[in-house]
Design goal:
CATH topology of one domain: Alpha-Beta Plaits
Oligomer: single chain
Distance between the termini: 55 Å
CATH architecture of one domain: 2-Layer Sandwich
Radius of gyration: 21 Å
Largest sheet: 5 strands, antiparallel
Number of strands: 5
Mean pLDDT: 78
Low-confidence stretches: 7-16, 18-30, 147-152
Number of helices: 7
Length: 152
């Protein structure tokens, strides 16, 4: 069943949900909604846990500077490099982060120095989607395997 066509004599009714869908569509069809940066890194096995903790510890300062997401992806099999994926609202926000003294302080850390970094490759997101409810429903960090389900 379809709805009747809009009447030309009535003004278009604004609804926030409709506006949001239109805004997202416009952003995805008229240019990058966000940028994604990929970087491969070689993390020595003895530094893995400290590296992951360093990423987690830097979350607040990175979010203050506009980062939308940071994912550390490790290869399924042995060997291979780790891939770090970050998402930013724009090239300008990312460039401002690169130029900030806060980033310089993070990169001077012992952990950062122990890891070998390859060049960053930037991508503009021009299509696709994220299933945010799905990510929340399947969040593996809720009960990591090494943590108890609740109080003992």
């Amino acid at each position: 069943m379809t709805s009747p066509p809009p009447r030309p004599d009535l003004p278009h009714q604004y609804t926030p949900a409709r506006h949001q869908r239109r805004y997202c569509h416009d952003r995805l069809t008229r240019g990058a909604a966000v940028i994604v940066c990929l970087r491969t890194v070689a993390v020595p096995p003895e530094w893995r846990d400290r590296y992951l903790a360093w990423i987690a510890a830097g979350r607040a300062i990175r979010q203050q500077h506009g980062i939308l997401a940071e994912l550390v992806c490790e290869p399924v099999g042995r060997g291979g490099d780790t891939v770090v994926i970050t998402m930013w609202p724009s090239h300008e926000v990312f460039d401002a982060w690169i130029a900030t003294p806060h980033r310089d302080a993070l990169t001077k850390s012992e952990v950062h120095q122990a890891v070998t970094y390859r060049p960053i490759t930037r991508y503009e997101v021009t299509g696709g989607y994220l299933n945010l409810p799905g990510l929340t429903a399947h969040d593996p960090s809720r009960n990591p395997p090494d943590m108890p389900e609740g109080p003992s």
